[in-house]
Amino acid sequence: MSTANQDNPLMSTVLGFKDQMVPIIGVDVWEHAYYLRYGPKRTSYLSAWWVVANWQQVESNYLSSLMKWPNQWATSSIGSSNMRG
To answer: Is residue 1 part of a domain?
Structure first.
């Protein structure tokens, strides 16, 4: 999904949720983030990014989100369809 500027797909204005949600992880894919080191090779940048991501923090963010919005995905048509695979 692509969003305008700094918007993220979990913002209430994008999904229509009553409460604004917060992403548990983010990656900057604008050219300023990778071009000096990787040139036009965004895929190489993203491959390296996966290695250095702080997965313990991502897990902590995820668990915190479950506590804050325990029923959000169960009642959302987007979340429920994604959870079923």
So the answer is: no
CATH of the domain at 38: 3.55.40.20
- Which domain covers residue 31, as residue numbers? 12-77
pTM: 0.58
Domain tally, the chain = 1
| Distance separating alpha carbons of residues 82 and 77, to the nearest angstrom | 9
- Examine residue 5 and state whether it is found in any structural domain, yes or no: no
Coarse DSSP helix, strand, coil percentages of the chain, rounded to the nearest 5 percent: 60, 0, 40
Tell me how far apart the alpha carbons of residues 14 and 36 are, in angstroms, rounded to a whole number: 32
pLDDT tens digits for range 72-83: 655 554 444 444
